[in-house]
Structure formats: C-alpha cells, structure tokens
Amino acid sequence: MDLEVIYSYIPRFVEAFWLTLKIGWFGILIAFIVGILTAFAVHFKIPVLSKIAGIYIEIFRNTPLLVQLFFIYFGLPKLGIRVSAESCGAVGLGLLGGSYMAEAIRSGLDAISLAQTESALALGMKKTQVFKYIILPEAFSLSVPAIVANLIFLLKETSVFSAISLMDLMFTAKDLIGLYYDTTETLFLLVIFYLIMLLPVSLIGNAVEKKYRYRMLGQ
C-alpha cells in the first residue's frame, strides 16, 4: 500500500464525502417528513389517504433505489420534468426512506395499547393531550431501533448515486481505479470514509436506544 497515493487522493475523497453526506441527510429529512405523514395516514385510517399511503409503501419498499433514481432522472424528463442529479438523489432517497420510516413509526403507534388511551381519557385528558404526552413519546421510543437501522441503511444506499453521475464516494473510487489502477489504496479510503459517515450514526443511535429503553423499562 502506497501512503503517498493515499495522501494524494484524500482531498478528492473529502470533497466526495461532503457531497454524499449533504445529499444523504437531505434525503433522510425528506424520508422523516414523508414517513411521519404516511404513518399517521395509515394508523388513523384516514379515508383515501390511507390507501394511497399503503400503495406508496408497497411500491417503494419493493423496488430498488437504483430503479427509482433512473425513473426520476431519465424518465421524468420525457414528461417535461427535469431534475438535477443532486435533487434526484435526495428525492429518490427520501421517497425510499419514507416508505421504511412510515412502517417503523406505524409499528410504534400500533404497539400502544388501547387501555392506555382509555385510561388517560377517563382521567380527564383531552385527545390532543393523550396523543402528545402518551402515545407519541411511547411510539417514538418503540420505533427508535427501526429508525436508527433505517438511517444507516439509507446512508449506505447513497453508494448507488454514482449511477446518475453524482461525484459521490463510490463514483470517486471507481473513477480513480479506472484512471490509475490504485485499487488497494482507493478501496481503503472508500472504506474509511464510509466508516466516518456511518459509525457516529450507529453509536449515537445505540445511545439513544439505551436511553429510551431505560426510561421505559428500567433496563
């Protein structure tokens, strides 16, 4: 392994890292918004919206992100809708992530027993108070492990952005290998930068999960 080669490649990987991170977290923000709205529509069985939400979840959970990106980036221009590569990456990741987040949040909401709601109402709490102070905090606590797993999954899925010519980490690695054949050094940097991106999420997620588990179960 040539250290000089590694040092010379670091600036390009740093640039690709920030681009990957920016698009990844924009996509995750979209995923949270879409996931929450979709989960509420399904859980509360809102007419029409719940069925649309169910169809959306099934379609996006059962098709690869790469196919979704191709549809947005290459398919939408046929309909007169042009999307930049960065916007395509964020939206595609957000829509995929929204379907997974929706199921994670919905499962947390469904796990709250009806007895808790009825008891709170019997004590004189309003429905909005029950939802805000009882259902929502508990549902979030139960959903934390799935949400953290989804965050890591979505950040790893950014590796397919190279298919739409985004200069992300994977594109940079493939480009350098194709030009200079420094495979070992390039793959080493690729692994390091993905670890830098993913390890903090995993560690923070585990800490949050333990905190909420202790609050709920005392474990």
Please specify the SSE layout and strand pairing.
Elements: H1 3-43, H2 49-61, H3 65-75, H4 85-110, H5 114-122, H6 127-157, H7 169-180, H8 183-217
Helix pairs in contact: 1-2, 1-4, 1-7, 1-8, 2-4, 3-4, 4-6, 5-6, 6-8, 7-8
Description of the molecule:
The chain is built from 8 helices and no strands. It is mainly alpha-helical. The chain has helices at 3-43, 49-61, 65-75, 85-110, 114-122, 127-157, 169-180, 183-217. The longest helix has 41 residues, at 3-43. It has a single domain, classed as MetI-like (MetI-like fold), CATH 1.10.3720. The relative contact order is 0.15.
Brief description of this entry?
The protein is mostly helical.
Give structural attributes.
flat, 81% helix, mainly alpha, 219 residues, MetI-like fold, 8 helices, single chain
